[in-house]
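Structure tokens please, single chain.
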Amino acid sequence: MIKMKQIERRFGWSALLLTLLLFIQAGCMSPARKLDEAAVKQSIHNGQTLAEVRQLFGQPKRSSTGTAGRVLDVFCVLLAPPGRSTAWDSMDVRSLHVLYGADNRVEKFTYYVGKTRVYSSAFDQQWQVGTPLEEGKVSQIQRNVTTRAELLRMFGAATAEGLDAYGDNTMSWTFIRGRDNGSKSSRELIVRLDDNSVAVDYLFQRVNL
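Here you go.
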């Protein structure tokens, strides 16, 4: 059984990271740095160097080290729709996970576009990001039994899907609630999957931001 600290090192997505993304303005960023799907597909391929990838996509939002000299870069952007028709907005969470081998060349990468909902209320000065995560549902996850399809039925589409620094696939769901006075709290669920898309481990935690 992997210990909690090992789990935390393996799992890559962070609620704090998503909070910081709320303040990113895409503005005049290049299509590659906006993680536009067509630009990503045209730009990245196995064998590229770490320096080449970072020149294309900018500095990663997070970088971590796995075994045998592997390095994982995570690039991500949260984009709002052009206008606000209601208090609820559906926002794109674009993420690119790039795993390099010991030679600092691309060994594996994944690209994913998730959706998250953002709600703000001027009346009570509260806001929230994502869909609430229920502990009862999380407790139903069975290691080496629950499949990716079952996770999607339980929690809906993931906020992000990608890799950890060991090359394993991950799915994550994040919910953040806050007030305009600065207080924030978060829940996040991160699940590690095997090659058969079965959950082998997960981390569910509350984070005070």
